UniProtKB/TrEMBL annotation:
Residues 5-154 form the 6-phosphogluconate dehydrogenase NADP-binding domain. It comes from Allokutzneria albata (Kibdelosporangium albatum). This is 3-hydroxyisobutyrate dehydrogenase. Pfam families: NAD_binding_2, RedAm-like_C. Keywords: Oxidoreductase, Signal. Residues 158-283 form the NADPH-dependent reductive aminase-like C-terminal domain.
Length: 289
């Protein structure tokens, strides 16, 4: 059953943004932080400051935790009584999420894990979304509160699934960032600024995103025979990029691991396969061809 009462524990930049978003959407918010002064701005907006974690948890049926790490979250969850719902938005690993879910279940606490995909300033805007996994009951019962932060996505009852998705999106994000920085470095040798390059990069990446639909199909079906961009073609392309980078005095180090994977696939007899087939060298375990 949905309720307007929500507790937020942890008022760092993200936790404060979460509490502020709840206040903007009309929720009755109780907050707690180790440093009480961090609650002052939220109290001015209508939040209630609790003196202890136990007091904060008692004020609401659902407790949102957003602190430095999983160890801190576990410590702060200790006073929470059976029957409460916990939404843990603390960054952690899939194993940590599963362990904390099991620990909460042993104490009669319903647990939902979440991964926030937004900077604090974007919380509550259309640019923000949060991925959840764990208790479906908690997600459904408190969906109105969770939607205050951004689009809500429930990914499954395995508490670790949201953190796996977080890792996957961060892989894609970091690859985009370092790729752009390398692009700026090489084009900068011709006197081009990052801002001048950006529109062309944006157009190029838009096309790359569309291409990912083909990559996803190949990877899911594990059929790499019809790919338009083969291992061999990309070996030649990367050899040229690496040589040109070195000639310009720009380090090609970010590309070398991918080139190594392509070389391994070619050596294994898969030069004509799609370049996406390198995932077979990344997946855990042994995968028969």
């Amino acid at each position: 059953m949905s309720t307007k009462k929500v507790t937020v524990i942890g008022l760092g930049s993200l936790g404060s943004a979460l509490a502020a978003a709840l206040l903007r959407t009309g929720h009755d918010v109780t907050v707690w932080n180790r440093t009480p002064e961090k609650a002052e701005a939220l109290v001015a907006q209508g939040a209630t400051r609790a003196d202890t974690v136990a007091e904060a948890a008692a004020a609401s049926p659902v407790v949102i935790v957003c602190v430095f790490d999983t160890e801190a979250a576990r410590e702060l969850l200790a006073p929470i009584q059976a029957g409460k719902a916990v939404v843990n938005l603390t960054s952690g690993s899939p194993d940590e999420a599963r362990e904390l879910a099991a620990w909460a279940a042993s104490r009669g606490v319903d647990y939902l894990d979440g991964a926030v995909m937004a900077v604090p300033a974007a919380i509550g805007t259309p640019d923000a979304f949060v991925m959840y996994s764990g208790s479906r009951e908690v997600f459904d019962a408190h969906r109105a509160a969770l939607d205050s932060f951004g689009a809500s996505h429930f990914l499954g009852e395995d508490a670790g699934v949201a953190e796996f998705h977080d890792l996957g999106l961060l892989y894609a994000g970091y690859a985009t960032l370092v790729g752009f920085l390398n692009s700026v470095a090489i084009v900068g040798t011709a006197g081009v600024t990052a801002r001048e390059l950006l529109p062309l990069v944006t157009t190029w990446l838009t096309g790359m995103v569309a291409y990912l639909a083909d990559v996803a199909r190949e990877v899911d079906e594990r059929d790499y025979t019809d790919g338009a961009s083969s291992v061999a073609i990309n070996q030649v392309a990367l050899d040229k990029i690496i040589a040109a980078s070195r000639a310009a005095g720009v380090s090609p180090d970010l590309l070398l691991p991918f080139k190594e994977l392509l070389d391994r696939r070619a050596a294994d007899g898969h030069a004509r396969d799609s370049a996406s087939s390198v995932i077979e060298l990344l997946r855990p375990g042994i995968h028969p061809e």
